[in-house]
Write a structure and sequence with these properties.
Ribonuclease iii, N-terminal Endonuclease Domain, Chain A; globular; three-stranded antiparallel beta sheet; about 60% helix; mainly alpha; 3 strands; metal-binding; about 250 residues; Double Stranded RNA Binding Domain
Length: about 250
């Protein structure tokens, strides 16, 4: 049974990346979570290496693709393309979770909650989703496995994984973090914004604009996610309010 799983894992990865492992044990280690009994080597150290390799590959791509971007803009672009949510999306796109050796009791539930949440934000939520790190770890560990197996070639590793990582976020699709976005909108339109922290009591943040409540955001797991959700919802509401005022004024 385990041998069959090995073969399925190898076929899946080869189909996705076009890369044939010389040492398949590296691939199987990449798909082994530390929760599995210690007679198996886990992907704990591999995801650390893969994170660094991916950052270098993305930095190199955007450095040459966008010669006019500042270092700050390049950093923002790199960060969103290597963050936990972006990589977790890659994992569920290719159903890597179905091939992970893992003994986390709530793992399947976490995957389904995350998968459902991504439907509301097709490209990236920019902070409004709780993303299971274990999913991102698979992708990082796989990148590390290829990097080690090909004798540490950045170019070969990039050729193997560049299509897998699509769609990459570009300057055209990069969005501002929700809290910054609502702050800038209110400042531009001379509106007073106040984001109230009720997370310790209700797991919510509430946004007030000119003293009126316009939106709430909730997350039982992560305070920053709750704040971002409130800001995101507030932005959508304020945009709608401004649009309605314009329509009324025009009439």
């Amino acid at each position: 049974m385990e041998e069959q799983s090995f073969q399925q894992r190898e076929r899946l990865v080869e189909e996705i990346t076009g890369y044939k492992f010389k040492n398949p044990d590296l691939l199987h280690q990449a798909f082994t979570h530390p929760s599995v009994p210690q007679n198996w080597a886990s992907n704990d150290r591999m995801e650390y290496l893969g994170d660094s390799v991916l950052s270098v590959m993305i930095a190199k791509k955007y450095y040459f693709a966008y010669p006019d971007l500042s270092s700050k803009d390049l950093t923002d672009l790199r960060s969103v393309n290597v963050d936990t949510e972006k990589l977790a999306r890659v994992a569920i796109k290719y159903n890597f979770h179905n091939h992970l050796r893992c003994q986390i009791q709530s793992f399947n539930e976490q995957v389904e909650v995350f998968r459902s949440a991504t439907l509301e934000y097709p490209l990236h939520s920019f902070g409004c989703i709780n993303s299971p790190k274990v999913l991102a770890d698979i992708v990082e560990a796989l990148i590390a496995a290829i990097y080690i197996d090909c004798n540490f070639s950045i170019d070969i590793t990039w050729q193997a994984v560049k299509d897998m990582l699509q769609p990459l976020i570009t300057p055209e699709t990069l969005e501002i973090q929700p809290v910054t976005k609502i702050m800038q909108l209110c400042q531009k339109n001379k509106l007073k914004i106040n984001i109230v922290d009720n997370w310790d009591k209700t797991r919510e943040f509430e946004c007030f604009v000119d003293g009126k409540s316009v939106a709430k955001g909730k997350s039982s797991q992560n305070k920053d996610t709750a704040r971002n959700r409130a800001a995101y919802n507030a932005y959508e509401q304020v945009i709608e309010n401004l649009r309605m005022k314009t329509i009324i004024k025009d009439h």
